[in-house]
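[job 4471] stage=fold_predict status=RUNNING
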Amino acid sequence: MEAVTWGFIGTIVGALASIATTALTNWNSHVLSNRAKESEKQNAANTFQRETILELQVALLDYFRSCCQIYSYDLIILKKTGKWHQSVPEELNDINRTLTAKISILIQRISDDELRTSLKAFKSICTQFGLAENDREASMYHMQALSDYENVNELLGQALRTTYL
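[job 4471] inference complete, writing structure tokens
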């Protein structure tokens, strides 16, 4: 073959090699970009969960304290009047209602299904001891809520620690 033919073949091979190199470089850049986006997305999700859990821990404590204050108020009124579950002071009722709404919203933001279910169960128990028919029933729910509060806090702590990994 003549030199011109070899020159032409060399040019074609060089162009194909250049195209292949460019394609591989672009593909690798695309893959790295996607990995960076996924990592950024995961970091944002972890940050969101961490902030939600931290906010929920504080709100849950306030909510449980509010429920216990209502329970204590009911016990005091029972001793004074002999009647269970009289009307609660409006301020205490408003605080409890606001905290109930707040933790309901925060619970829905939790991505862990098991944790979300446990939180809903705890909230339900707190509602039960607030709506109990008598002091014995309220006491039973209150004791259950005390136990559940510890368990839920443990689960929140575990979930929080996973957001730092």
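[job 4471] summary: The mean pLDDT is 91.
[job 4471] exit 0
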